[in-house]
Amino acid sequence: EYKDMSKERMMEIRRQYCNPMTMKVTYYKKPVYIHQGHMQWLWDVDGRRYLDLFAGVATVSVGHCHPKVTEAAEKQLRKLWHTTNIYVYSPLHEYTEKLAATLPDPLKVIYLTNSGSEANDLAMLMARLHTGNFDVITLSEYETGLTSIWLFSSQTMCPDVFAGPWGGSNCRDSPVQTIRDCSCPQGSCTANDKYIGQLNEVFATSVASRIAAFFAEPIMGVGGAVQYPKNFLKDTYKLVRERGGVCIADEVQTGFGRTGSHFWGFQGHDVIPDMVTMAKGIANGFPMGAVVTTPEIAASFAKGVHFNTFGGNPVACAIASSVLDTMEEDGTQQISHDVGTYLLTELAKMRDKYEIIGDVRGKGLQIGVEMVKDKASRKPLPPAAMSEIFEDTKDMGVLIGKGGVYGQTFRIKPPMCITRDDADFFLAVFNQALHNYMEDHH
Ligand code: PMP
């Protein structure tokens, strides 16, 4: 029987040997020491059960240790882990055929990676080789990942988003232009003209004179479930393409049915990107990522060299393949739609009741609840207050996330196996946490 280390020993080791950042992001004042997971549930080392509404940041797609996916992983682990893909093996081909079937034409050529950061780096490289241009445009609240090859990496494209929840940013002196979200604190914004105006200002600068790519998530994740004005992506894609650039949809958080209405988030915007990047939910938490692009862009890239030791390894492919089957069998997209819509409706009622809920937004099971000091000022609820509600929600048995530039937005993106009863449990807990906060401070 496996026995966990004591909490004190784990913290001692963490302090001494682990990346100092891990001390910053234990996430809670009283950290959660996880022992085990099953579907939408996590248990800590003391046997306390939590409803997990964050899913390792939208990563656990079909459920923690989903029995069917675990079985597929176990089978493959006994057969073949690795050979590098200079050899030909079945799991990779089974998977790529299945994944391609989920995407519209001409998005049919797949490159497998091990993470979202790698997928975005690769997409950026391909965009540059295909267009012959260098500049990249994105939005300031977009997190692309944390790799760090200077001027070549996704790390140079996330100027603001780490400042709030993480207390730091890696993106100083970024050579990449961004369009600012016009609703800070973020709130609902319908100002397509203002967004497009900002985009045109960016085009007018020398930085974006030779554009290789425009990167955007269909709904921002770490940025706090920020949605765009209607037609913003469609209009932007047109403007970018007119200038010779390609359009890249980062589906790391929004893909695989999470938005409920569609399997891919971009489908909700009536656009077809030139490239789609994906990771997180792709393999239910097993490390994997992918770039999917058109034969035309792949042909430009074929002039260069691309190799990835672990990308597309048989275990990741077997798991990802089983994830796609499980999504179909369990009806995860439908759950996202139904439970997500229910949550959004009920949270909107809470917004009307509480002065400190500024906005409820998102789609399916990609939800943001933006907290404000009061509805008139729309100033972000300060970190100490956020932390109080967050901690209280956890102590009552529900794990949620935080995001937004000021760390002012609670994020809900659970494994897509939650039920309406789970939603009701969360709503009762969250209501109690807000009630407690209001009692203590108003
Ligand atoms: N894109 C988005 C939208 C993300 O949210 C993240 C991670 N939070 C990444 C890319 C980077 O993915 P990874 O951590 O797998 O490198």
UniProtKB/TrEMBL annotation:
Its EC number is 2.6.1.18, 2.6.1.40, 2.6.1.44. GO terms for molecular function: (R)-3-amino-2-methylpropionate-pyruvate transaminase activity; alanine-glyoxylate transaminase activity; beta-alanine:pyruvate transaminase activity; pyridoxal phosphate binding. Its cofactor is pyridoxal 5'-phosphate. PROSITE patterns: AA_TRANSFER_CLASS_3 (PS00600). GO terms for biological process: glyoxylate catabolic process; L-alanine catabolic process, by transamination. GO terms for cellular component: mitochondrion. Keywords: Aminotransferase, Mitochondrion, Pyridoxal phosphate, Transferase, Transit peptide. It comes from the Eukaryota. It catalyses: L-ornithine + glyoxylate = 5-amino-2-oxopentanoate + glycine; L-ornithine + pyruvate = 5-amino-2-oxopentanoate + L-alanine; N(omega),N('omega)-dimethyl-L-arginine + pyruvate = 5-(3,3'-dimethylguanidino)-2-oxopentanoate + L-alanine; (R)-3-amino-2-methylpropanoate + pyruvate = 2-methyl-3-oxopropanoate + L-alanine. Homotetramer. Multifunctional aminotransferase with a broad substrate specificity. Catalyzes the conversion of glyoxylate to glycine using alanine as the amino donor. Catalyzes metabolism of not L- but the D-isomer of D-beta-aminoisobutyric acid to generate 2-methyl-3-oxopropanoate and alanine. Catalyzes the transfer of the amino group from beta-alanine to pyruvate to yield L-alanine and 3-oxopropanoate. Can metabolize NG-monomethyl-L-arginine (NMMA), asymmetric NG,NG-dimethyl-L-arginine (ADMA) and symmetric NG,N'G-dimethyl-L-arginine (SDMA). Belongs to the class-III pyridoxal-phosphate-dependent aminotransferase family. This is Alanine--glyoxylate aminotransferase 2, mitochondrial. It comes from Salmo trutta. The lineage of its organism: Eukaryota, Metazoa, Chordata, Craniata, Vertebrata. The gene is AGXT2.
